[in-house]
Amino acid sequence: MNVSAIIELAEPERLLTWRGHVLATWFFEGYRKFAIQPMESAGASVTHVEDIHGLFAPVFGIAMGGAAKRSHGELNEALRSRAENPGYEKE
After folding, report:
1. What is the C-alpha separation between 87 and 90, in angstroms, rounded?
2. pLDDT tens-digit profile of 45-73?
3. Which of 3, 13, 29, 65 is most deeply packed, by most CB within 10 A?
4. pTM: predicted TM-score of the whole model, two decimal places
5. Residues 37, 71, 43, CA angle at the centre, nearest 5°?
């Protein structure tokens, strides 16, 4: 899909949000948010949220739901690996 996306908020080490659509927002729009919360002990908690909506969203969910879920899991795992291993570079 050719998605037109715009970064809405970018706060280093805190928050990243973007919104994108295909054709028009009423047809298919996705919103993604990555929120980073430092923890009192070492480390941080990351919340990854995605919301899709629009006329095409149910079709996308049926056709691509499993692949999207796997892709999100892989993205989250790569993020965790990078955070836990600062020198980590996946080839």
Report:
1. 10
2. 888 888 888 888 888 777 777 887 888 88
3. 29
4. 0.69
5. 20
